[in-house]
Each structure stands twice: as structure tokens, then as C-alpha cells.
Amino acid sequence: MDKHYWIGIDTGGTFTDLVLRDALDGRWVFHKVPTWTADPAKGILDGIAELLALAAVDAAEVDYVVLGTTKATNAVLEGAWAKTGLITTAGFEDILDIARQRRPHYFNLDMPKPVPPARRQDRHGVKGRIAFDGSEVDALDEAAITQAITALRASGVESVAVCFMHSYANPAHEQRALRMVRAQWPEAYVCASSEVMPEFREYERFITAAVNASLMPVMDRYLEKFEGGVKALGVTRPARVMQSNGGAVSAATVRKLPINTFFSGPAGGIMSTVEIGRQTGLKNLIAFDMGGTSTDVCLVKNGRPAMKHERPMGGLPVRAPSLDIHTIGAGGGSIAWIDDGGMLKVGPRSAGAYPGPAAYGRGGTQPTVTDANVFLGRLSPVSLLDGRMQVFPQNAQKALEEAVCGPVGYTPVDAAVGVIEIANVHMTGAVRVISVEQGEDPRDYALIAFGGAGPLHAVDVARSAGIGHVVVPPRPGLLSAQGLLQSAQRADMGVTCLLRAHASNVAAVNQAFDGLQARLADWLRDEGAEEGVEMHCDWTLEMRYAGQSSELAVAVAAPRLDAASLAALCQGFHEKHLSMFGYDMPGRDLEIAQARVAAVLDHHTRAPLEIAAGGTLADATTGTRPVWFAATGYVETPIVKRELLGADLRFQGPAVIEQMDTTTVVPPDAQVRVDPLGYLHITIVIETFESQSA
Predict the structure, then answer these.
(1) 55-110 tens-digit pLDDT
(2) In which residue ranges of the chain is CATH 3.30.420.190 found?
(3) Residue 109 contacts by C-beta under 8 Å, 6 or more apart in sequence?
(4) Burial of 109 (C-beta count, 10 Å sphere; 0-12/13-18/19+)
(5) Which residue numbers delimit the Hydantoinase A/oxoprolinase domain (predicted)?
(6) If you ran DSSP here, which 8-state letter would residue 437 be given?
(7) Under 8 Å CB-to-CB from 439, ≥6 apart: which residues?
């Protein structure tokens, strides 16, 4: 049987989005189901079965399945990781607790410390020492390793992290200990820091390896159930999983390195944003993904998404290659509440899919952002998901009155408006974090609105952030799932250099790049990369002023440096430092701390999107209803069916544009243009300081 169907699955906190693509004719089929938080795999498998039935496709015809999952993220945030042990260099057993001097709140004496995954009694030090230059100072005490293995087995540990000093310079001791654990304890999950994060800075390397080890059993069991269920449905191809860096890899790789999947779900939306830029010709974009539980934002500059190699997860500084996605706890399901001081708050707690917002009629009683949107007419008071989900506006009003109006005396309209405005302020702050705080002017960017709730709030957030152009793709509520099928195979690797940025060190940097590219080629080959597909690489140097303890990443145009190109990189570093921090130090020596290479193997062809069908605004308008807008209050507003909007159509707001997967709110002062690919381009006038002063 010919296999030519691809399936992408994005598991969110509230809904699981599924898309099916026919690789032959480019046809897309979309489906959306509530997420089962108690058993995410079951919800996914039920959704796949429904999607196949909806598309009238036999499971045996499926060639490619990609999963975006929040399993690792949830495990860390909830502390639901496996019981983990640590085998480390003698004297460094407490490094997971000592951590760094940096604290998120310097003057909070009662601030709880983040809990590392390995308890103190499950950390064992062994003799043996590697120096910073990779030379052996003391031989490894293998008898002590055997004793540590015996003790960890007795304590009920399920996974082990092996972390020795300076293993990034010479992993021999770690590799020997790793082999001993596997030989003496075959059923244990085990990883070495030199495999997880072979870089300097021992605390970050140790904590990253420990978190990775703690997630290995969790992810293994989750993937086993998922893969078994997919196979039971009749799909014979092995599934792949999205990584935080925007590349899809085999499930076997994810079992070894679950640390690389923290932003697995949101990464799909960012890859779709990059594709949107390619199709529309827009180079500078801000991805704005608002779902039911959270909002994710990411900057795409000159067609390339921003990357980051260290992220706090549960208060722990985890080092793993990731798209620079900034997440806040503001979504459609975010709960509104009154604090002890009588102030209205929104989030970060969420009603999730069950019981969900009060308006869903599933037993939810606490008011949410969705309830505020329903009450103000911004969301349909009748149904969502093309009629599959009934809406109960009276429940939304009751929840607002009981939880917000009663305690502080607000009117229902004031309460609903307050909930919307507070959520918008939170999301505007997130946009500023990835733009203004990085030295970028948001006025130079277009906002790409997606997620189930993104187009509802996009224009308000864009206006607050100073962005005058909002783009809403054809299927915004399912864009992250689509992005999973637009992702390539990708791997990121780095090596510690610790060199002065002098011409005399050019050869050493080139050697580092050569070694990384060779390792990446081997890795992609092991991943089953197709023969004849060209590997594209991006090269980066992490640089700093001599004496600094943090670095800035500077892109390298080509892997072979010479004195002139190194000098240009140094100038680029000065300019970036000035842009981000407001000063530079041209007279000070620069250091190269890390060399990094990202390899991408993109063998997917991009099927053209369907051209928007012909039709006028009158044809697409299904009725009107009162909708509240900040500038006007309630206005009788046209309700427009998205699928009936024709190409090159232009119209003035107000309008509420409805479709199966989302709703787009267009205020009275905004203009809408439908391009030939079906994208909505919403233009708003941004007031500047000069216009306000005129």
C-alpha cells in the first residue's frame, strides 16, 4: 500500500491539535480534541483515530507521524520525575544544592530553593580527577563506583546521572563509569554529562544531566504507550518527536535526551512562523501563540528564529539547545481572581480542558479569559469548533459576578473588560521581553497570531507593543501541529574553546568547527537521514569581554575563519553588546568561550497552500451581534465566516471573523486584507509620541 500521508500532533494544556497532510496533492485535514491531562497518550490516540476517520484514510497509508509534547516540561514543573541518583567526583556531591550565587529575588529571605532531582543521600562521590586541560590527575576508583551502584540500587533509584569534573575536556572517566553502571545494573536508566552537555561550567552541566536522567524513565514510558497505541491503530512507520530546537528526531533519541523536548509543542508554531515569512516575504516576525493555558512568543529576525542554550525550568538552569521561546501563564483558560488586597488578577492558574471555562458547561465555575470574551461578545455565545462545542454565556456571566463582581463591586462589563486588559498587559510584557529587552524595535516586526486564542487578542497586544501589522494564517488554531510537518531533521552541538579572540587562535577555532561538523554528520546518519540530501549548517561563536562570566552569541558566515573575518566578528560582538546593554568596551580583549554548529537536513517539499476561494464580504457575513471594543463600547458587529472570504478582499473593521479553530477580533479602526494565500493582514494605526504631542 502506498504511504503518502503525514500526521502532526500538538499536545497542548487544553486542546490536542491534529493535522493530516497528503504528501502527493498537498491536501490538509484538521481536527481538534480536548487534552486528557490524566492520560495524555489516550487523548492523542483517540484523536488520531478520529482524524483518520474524518479524512477517510487507512492507517497503513500513513508514512510520517510527528509528536509535539509537553510531557517533559510538565514532569519538571510538577516534580513528577523519577527517583534519581548521582555519581560524581569526590567532594562535589553538594554542587546541586550550592548552585550559583544568582537568585531571582535577592531580598527575599524566605525564598524556597529549587529542589534538584537527586536527593543528597542518593549522591555518591568517587575518587578520580581530570584537569581543565583534559589530563588525568588521579586515576578513577572503580571499586568506589561499584559501591555507589550497589547503594543506589538498594535505595530504590531508577535513573543515574554520571557527572565528573572537566569531562567536557576528557570524557574517559565518565564513559568508563557509564559502562560499569550499564554492565552491573542493566535495567537502570543512565546518562553521562559529557553526552548530555559536553560544556564547561560544572553546576549547569551537572544539573542538566541530573534532570535528563530523571526524565528518561518518564519519557520512555510515555513514548512506549504512544508508539504502542499508534502501532495498534495500524500505523507501521516509527513516530518522530519534535525537539525544542525546531527539528524532529527519532523516539529513540528522545528516550536518551528527553531534556531536548521542553519546548517540543511550541517549537512547531515557530517553524510555521518561519514558513509564513517565506511565503509572504516578511523577514522580521514575532510569533504570538496564545492557547488555553499559556502564551508563547518568539522573535524571528531576517527569517531566522532566535535560539537560546540555557533556560530555567522549575528554577533549575537547564542547558539544552532551544528556540528562544518566552512563555507566560496567560491563556484562554487562565482564571480570574481577587487577591487579599482586593486587586483583580488573571492567571497563572488555568481551568484547562476539564472542567474548563464556565462557558463550556463542563462544571467549571471560576471565571476565565474565555468567559470574559464570551460575555463581551468577542466569542460566539452559541457554539465553538464548528458547532461541536456548545457555549453557555449565562455560566460565564454567573462566574464573573460571583468571583469578581461580588467581592469588589464591579459591574459584569467592568469585570470582563478588566480580565481582558490584564491578560493583554501580561502578553504585551512577553512581547517586550523578546524584542525591546533584546535591543529590537517591535515596530520593525509583524505579529503572527496563532493558537486557539491568539487572533482574539492579537490586535490589542500589537497595539500595546507598538506593532502596526498583524498576520493571521488560514488555520491559526492548528498552526503548531502544521509546523511539526514543516520541520526538518536538526541537531545542535557545541564545544568549549576558552580562547582569546586573536588571529593566532584562528586555526584552533576552525578545527573546533570541523570537529563539530563531522560529529553532526555522523549523528544525522545514525538518525536515518536520507542519502543525497545536503546538510546545511549554521555556525556560532559565544564571545565575551575578558573577565566577564556570560557570553553573547555571534553568527559566523562561513566555517573557515581568517584574521579579517575574526576581526569582523569582534566588531559584531561590540555592536551587539552595545545594542543589548547600552555600552561596549572596544579596547578590551575578547574571549571565545564556545563554538557551536547547527546542522539541518531538510528533505520535505513545501506543498503550496490553497488559494482563498472567491467571495465578497457580504457573502461571508452570517449576521451581527453586539461586541465590546475599548474605543467604542458595545457596537453591532458583522460576524464573518473565514472560509468564505475571497482573495484580495479588503474591508474596514469592526468584524468578528469565525472559523473552526479560532476567532479573530478586528476593532473598528483596523483594516483587513486577504492575500492570495488566504492570510489575513490586519493593519492598525500606532500612535507615536509625536502624534500624541501634536
Answers:
(1) 999 999 999 899 999 899 888 888 889 999 999 999 999 999 999 887 777 788 78
(2) 268-487+651-694
(3) none
(4) exposed
(5) 205-491
(6) G
(7) 576, 579, 580
Grid cell 473598528 — which residue?
Answer: 668
Q: Which helix (H) or strand (E) element contains residue 372?
A: helix 369-375
690 — pLDDT class (breaks 50, 70, 90): very low
478: Cα separation from own chain's centroid? 15
CA 540 to chain centre: 21
- The DSSP 8-state label assigned to residue 9 in this structure reads E
Distance, CA of 599 to chain centre: 19
CATH class of the domain whose range is 489-601: alpha beta
Q: Is the dihedral of CA 518, 521, 523, 526 positive or negative?
A: negative
| CA 299 remoteness from chain centre | 12
> How far out from the chain centre does Cα 402 lie?
35
Q: Where in the chain is the domain with CATH 3.30.420.40?
A: 5-75+221-261
Choose among 230, 291, 223, 262: nearest CA to 47. 230
Which amino acid is located at 131 in the chain?
A
CA–CA distance from 539 to each of 244, 510, 522, 554, 570 (Å)? 18, 11, 17, 9, 15
Strands 118-126 and 84-89: parallel
Q: Number of helices and strands (H, E) in the chain? A: 19, 37
Secondary element (H or E) of residue 373? helix 369-375
Instruction: Provide CATH 3.30.1490 ranges for the chain.
Output: 489-601
In angstroms, the CA 243 to CA 490 distance is 9
Report the chain's terminal Cα–Cα distance, integer Å. 70
Q: How far is CA 313 from its chain centroid?
A: 12
- Banded pLDDT at 613 (limits 50, 70, 90): low
CA–CA gap between residue 614 and residue 612 (Å, rounded): 7
What secondary structure does DSSP assign to 103-169, as a single string? -S-TT-TTPPPPPPSEEEEEEEEE--EE-TTS-EEE---HHHHHHHHHHHHHTT--EEEEE-TTTTT
Between 202-233 and 40-55, two packed helices, what is the crossing angle to 10 degrees? 40
The pTM of the full predicted model, rounded to 2 decimals, is: 0.90
Assigned superfamily of 5-75+221-261: ATPase, nucleotide binding domain (3.30.420.40)
- Of the candidates 307, 305, 298, 268, the one whose C-alpha atom is nearest the C-alpha of residue 283 is 305
Q: Report phi then psi at 487, rounded to 5.
A: -85, 155
Q: How many CA atoms lie within 13 A of 363 on its CB side?
A: 4
pLDDT tens for residues 28-51?
Answer: 899 988 888 778 788 899 999 999
The CA distance from 629 to 606, in Å, is 39
Whole-number Å distance between alpha carbons of 532 and 394 = 60
> Which CATH code, of 3.40.50.1000, 1.10.240.10, 3.30.420.190, 2.40.50.140, is assigned to 268-487+651-694?
3.30.420.190
Per the listing, cell 519534535 goes with: 242
Three cell numbers at 569? Answer: 566578528
* Beta strand spans in 246-284 (E): 248-250
What is the DSSP-derived secondary structure letter of residue 488?
Answer: B
